[in-house]
Amino acid sequence: MNIIKTSIEGPLILEPRIFRDDRGYFFESFSQRTFNEEVREIHFVQDNESKSSYGVVRGLHFQKPPFTQSKLVRVIQGAVLDVAVDIRRGSPTFGQYVKVELTGENHRQFFVPRGFAHGFSVLTDEVVFQYKCDNFYAPQSEGAIAWDDPDLGIDWQIPADKVILSEKDKHHPRLKDAEWLFDWNENLY
């Protein structure tokens, strides 16, 4: 597995070694041992899968303590633009983001550590998206910031009139107005 550092410390892109032949392909999509050695020691406890259509934007979501989550995300079918925003007050990269295109063809995965808000936009007719979480979902611990916060300036690669949002995602605060964010000096693990 090739581990690619991003412009912000923490989020990482993981590229598997793919073995192709005339039958198709094979790759190891996850190894706890390799992940612990190459990325960080984490115990994933929940796998999720979603299916979405073109124009859907989900995010920017996070969970507050004690249910803070890291995520390891990937696309099985289709393509997304995946985004992680640093929401750790005091961090030298606070308010900056990393984005990566994940597709069913490139088999890349994106590690989103605790302290980051996460979201994605669907770039193809349909997408099947999977993610591992290192903490259980807890609705009482949900947090989010606006996907279209002008201070972040994220280009989701979807025309504004084609964006499809959940009712919840239409009403999140801008980063500067968020009532709760992480503290960069706090150990989130």
From TrEMBL:
<dbReference type="GO" id="GO:0019305">
    <property type="term" value="P:dTDP-rhamnose biosynthetic process"/>
</dbReference>
<comment type="function">
    <text>Catalyzes the epimerization of the C3' and C5'positions of dTDP-6-deoxy-D-xylo-4-hexulose, forming dTDP-6-deoxy-L-lyxo-4-hexulose.</text>
</comment>
<dbReference type="InterPro" id="IPR011051">
    <property type="entry name" value="RmlC_Cupin_sf"/>
</dbReference>
<keyword id="KW-0413">Isomerase</keyword>
<comment type="similarity">
    <text>Belongs to the dTDP-4-dehydrorhamnose 3,5-epimerase family.</text>
</comment>
<feature type="active site" description="Proton donor">
    <location>
        <position position="131"/>
    </location>
</feature>
<feature type="active site" description="Proton acceptor">
    <location>
        <position position="61"/>
    </location>
</feature>
<dbReference type="InterPro" id="IPR014710">
    <property type="entry name" value="RmlC-like_jellyroll"/>
</dbReference>
<dbReference type="Pfam" id="PF00908">
    <property type="entry name" value="dTDP_sugar_isom"/>
</dbReference>
<feature type="site" description="Participates in a stacking interaction with the thymidine ring of dTDP-4-oxo-6-deoxyglucose">
    <location>
        <position position="137"/>
    </location>
</feature>
<dbReference type="GO" id="GO:0008830">
    <property type="term" value="F:dTDP-4-dehydrorhamnose 3,5-epimerase activity"/>
</dbReference>
<protein>
    <recommendedName>
        <fullName>dTDP-4-dehydrorhamnose 3,5-epimerase</fullName>
        <ecNumber>5.1.3.13</ecNumber>
    </recommendedName>
</protein>
<comment type="pathway">
    <text>Carbohydrate biosynthesis; dTDP-L-rhamnose biosynthesis.</text>
</comment>
<dbReference type="InterPro" id="IPR000888">
    <property type="entry name" value="RmlC-like"/>
</dbReference>
<comment type="subunit">
    <text>Homodimer.</text>
</comment>
<dbReference type="GO" id="GO:0000271">
    <property type="term" value="P:polysaccharide biosynthetic process"/>
</dbReference>
<dbReference type="GO" id="GO:0005829">
    <property type="term" value="C:cytosol"/>
</dbReference>
